[in-house]
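Example record

The entry below shows one chain as it appears in the dataset: sequence first, then structure tokens.
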Amino acid sequence: MINCEFENGNKANLRHVTVGCIVAKDNKILLAKRSQKLMLEGGKWCLPGGFMEHGETASEACEREVLEESGWKIKNLKLFRINDNPNRPHEDRQNIDFIYIAEADKGVGEKDWESEEISWFPLDRLPAKNMIAFDHIDSIELYKKYLKNPFHLPLTGLSK
């Protein structure tokens, strides 16, 4: 849990930068099942990702988070969309999410404590929508449309 406040003590208007990644390999995408006991939306599947740390770029955060949560290195990272919807479901704060797409490069480690499980899913056999955390299904659905008919990236302003 991140606890932050502005210099004036205001906590209500904080915004956090998060990253997520649609990692593709062999016509499948990588999803992580969030730790049921330790994470918001625990027990649900999500795109690997998390909070950007001080001193790193969004793309560096994305590479780090994918590696930490899945043990996979990625390549050909591209910014896919910026999700700045102030009313994202199931969030305990407003997160501005930079969603990337990438190819899996190689598995080099193990998942960390944030993920109970990782798995590759064909795009036509994803977990039930109510078992996908936050609004990650929206990015996955956009990605499926992008694969059928590529459009200019990154996508912005889709929050309304």
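Notes for this example: Residues 15-148 form a domain with the Nucleoside Triphosphate Pyrophosphohydrolase fold (CATH 3.90.79.10). Residues 58-70 form the longest helix (13 residues).
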